[in-house]
């Protein structure tokens, strides 16, 4: 009976040591993955920051359109078109 308990204790100890080793390996891989994700997220953040100028330009254009700048420009272009058409009629 004693021999059976000793063998069971040895097997349980070996299994526990194997479990601890695998857990350490898993945590090391998890740390490496977290570092890689951090690098990727910093790279993505830098790329997003690099397009801030384009976003600001789009904001200015959209606010200009909504505030009537587009209508004013279209009106000025329309005046030139009318003036050009009147000049073409006078030339005939």
Notes on the protein architecture:
With 92 residues, the protein is mainly α. It has 2 domains: 1-50; 53-92. It is 96% helix and 0% strand. The mean pLDDT is 82.
How far is the N terminus from the C terminus?
A: 123 Å
* Discrete helix count: 3
What percent of residues adopt helix (DSSP H or I)? over 70%
- Arithmetic mean of pLDDT: 82
Short description:
By secondary structure, the chain is an all-alpha fold. It has helices at 2-50, 52-67, 69-91. The chain is built from 3 helices and no strands.
Topology (elements, then pairings):
Layout: H1 2-50, H2 52-67, H3 69-91
What characteristics describe this protein?
mainly alpha; 3 helices
């Amino acid at each position: 009976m004693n021999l059976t308990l000793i063998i069971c204790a040895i097997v349980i100890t070996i299994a526990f040591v194997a479990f601890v080793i695998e857990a350490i390996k898993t945590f090391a891989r998890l740390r490496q993955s977290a570092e890689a994700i951090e690098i990727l997220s910093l790279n993505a953040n830098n790329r997003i920051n690099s397009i801030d100028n384009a976003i600001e330009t789009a904001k200015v254009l959209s606010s200009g359109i909504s505030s009537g700048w587009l209508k004013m420009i279209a009106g000025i272009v329309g005046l030139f078109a009318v003036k050009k058409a009147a000049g073409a009629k006078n030339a005939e």
